[in-house]
């Protein structure tokens, strides 16, 4: 059901929104490094850095990662020059750049950037600040996308502990980390999926437990996702892409457990939210459409469901084709710029 692309794209988009926002109203362990004295009117470079970062965010949403990385690197260079390499603003730029690099498949560089961001956050805000927790969360996401489940869960659990203590158990940041950790547990459960070998079948006939990791992982993932959904609903985040992603991952848990009707209902709900929250041509929307199609195909379709599958398939195909065309145009434009 929900695979690496869905998690990768949506968390990348969420990273931009999260790191573009100012620090939360939480007293830091120590004040951030002061900005160097500048001449009157020298705030223009700062504004330029913000403008470039905002443009990078829009490029990410459009799927133009080459452009997004170029813009974000320019923003980072300006911030390092204006406020110094140890300022929290620099950490924010580093974290966003890290998620772009992870999306482009360079997870080692992404982790290096995030570790630098973590060092800055630790020194400027302290190890128990929620902004520091966000770095651990992103590190966990990168580790998950690399397939390294143990480090991913360690980082996410560390983030969850900090967030729960600093923000309270019902904060949306807690819900996001719960959802991410559940995705890691879901991957772990799939790794331990039993094969119907004669030995396994015989053990089942005898009523013996043949695999304890898989059901435990699925149970914990379901618990975390249901808690995340409840927090999103309580905090006014019930109509966000993050809510849709949590519902889609919950549907994936249901599929792994053979609860197909529940999975179908959850994907329907997730797609409705995504339809309302995302642009019609957003590549993430295609992911939710495809998950809905997969859920419908888990049982015999009636005429209305077959018609729905045809309609959804056409929508997803159109989005994918626009995404491919847009990426090709971006590459051509960048090639032309480099040659000139």
Description:
It contains 14 helices and no strands. The protein is an all-alpha fold. The radius of gyration is 22 Å and the shape is globular. It starts with a helix and ends with a helix.
Query: How many strands appear in the DSSP assignment?
Result: 0
User: Which blocks of ≥5 consecutive residues have pLDDT under 50?
Assistant: 1-42
Strand content: under 5%
Could you spell the SSE succession in H and E letters? HHHHHHHHHHHHHH
Q: What percent of the residues sit in helical stretches (DSSP H or I)?
A: over 70%
Cα shape: globular
The residue-averaged pLDDT reads: 82
Number of helices: 14
The termini sit apart by 45 Å
List keywords for this structure.
single chain; disordered N terminus; mainly alpha
Per-chain topology:
Elements: H1 4-20, H2 43-61, H3 65-83, H4 88-103, H5 107-125, H6 130-146, H7 149-167, H8 172-191, H9 198-205, H10 213-234, H11 241-256, H12 260-277, H13 283-296, H14 303-339
In short:
The chain has 14 helices and no strands. The protein has 340 residues and is mainly α. The chain is globular, with a radius of gyration of 22 Å.
